[in-house]
Amino acid sequence: AMRCLPKGIDQRSACRHPDWTGPDDLEIKIHELREITNWEKPIYVKVGGTRPYYDVALAVKAGADVVVLDGMQGGTAATQDVFIEHVGIPTLACLRPAVKALQDLGMHRKVQLIISGGIRSGADVAKALALGADAVAIGTAALVALGDNDPHYEEEYQKLGTTAGAYDDWHEGKDPAGITTQDPELMKRLDPVKAGRRLSNYLKVMTLEAQTVARACGKSHLHNLEPEDLCALTIEAAAMAQVPLAGTSWIPGKTPF
Half-sphere exposure (CA, 13 Å, Cβ side) for 95? Predict the structure, then answer.
């Protein structure tokens, strides 16, 4: 049974923290966590990409040290398809409103902003930092780097109704690669040394890619990237990122064409 619940017992998966009914409760919870950790640990608040400006502002007001903002491209599969495909807004559309909230509060670069959801390459990292994020977080990309969706297990993926490269039912505990599972037999398939080496290589290459982009923009440090280093190839991307459409100075919704 999932979460070790016996048969016949309902699995409760609340859509929110039961002890939070609003921003005031969040402030109380953060204070409680600070007391538990003797004020020694940073407090992260993770929010989904829905109303990034207001959610980030509320998290900052409640006393968060770090806000983690997760766009809808995040790779979760432990929910309904309608939720995965139609709830939330894209990562790109989340970032600029979140940064503006921090800037309006005078807290940009004081409260850290971490962006996640579909981050795969060094180019993604460079763009996120240029738009104002302090860091990025990865999930699915790390799983793949560890060896998930390995074509070597194609036959077993097909038995699960999918194929290598498309498997994302990690919550079911049947991962043929032996990563997202508690099954002792499946777990034996994962070589932690080899997997760790692959993940290390992936992170190093991602970092080098991002640094290369920064150098191409004439910057001496990755964190010196800024929105002025970017342009967009579509009107939609220009509007969401609030950077000019390539070949123009036009930012949809902000400057006249």
Answer: 29
